[in-house]
């Protein structure tokens, strides 16, 4: 798939999201950390946060990625507090399907800002990085949970 003629990837909304990450700094002293890298684009996201019960609190990120990856990370972190591992995993899986088939957008506030990136497969690897980094940090759910 190639970009449609005239499609714009770096919209003002996407760029505004990319610079909003400063509100959610990475905390190396947090209770859990995790990292994800994209083999296709080289983007990297490191997640920090605490877990109370089965919910995330105080999420923070360190992001080294393109503006699309930064915007996706900002969308993730702005709505990660209070989420469970299962919710994050379901959203990440829905993002993967959305990017592959252009189905309906996943249920995650603000995700529609990333819709222009569907036309740019080279950016797809950067989009789920924050979700993957959080999943790498969070304890695995067990059948007894």
Principal-axes shape call? globular
Kindly identify the CATH topology: Sufe protein. Chain: A
Distance between the termini: 41 Å
Rg value: 15 Å
- Strands ordered across the widest β-sheet: 1-2-3
Q: What percentage of residues falls in helices of 4 or more residues?
A: 25-40%
Overall domain count: 1
pLDDT averaged over residues:
90
E-strand count: 3
Low-confidence stretches: none
- Structural class based on helices, strands and sheet pairing: alpha+beta
CATH level-1 class: Alpha Beta
**CATH-scheme architecture:** Alpha-Beta Complex
Strand content range: 15-25%
- The total count of helices amounts to 4
Write up this protein.
The protein is 32% helix and 17% strand. The chain is globular, with a radius of gyration of 15 Å. Helix 3 (85-101) packs antiparallel against helix 4 (129-137). Strand 2 and strand 3 form a beta hairpin. The chain has 145 residues and is α+β, with helices and mostly antiparallel strands. It has a 3-stranded antiparallel sheet with strand order 1-2-3. It has a single domain (23-137), classed as Sufe protein. Chain: A (Alpha-Beta Complex).
Topology:
Blueprint lengths: L11 H8 L12 E6 L6 E9 L2 E10 L2 H12 L6 H17 L27 H9 L8
Helix pairs in contact: 1-2, 3-4
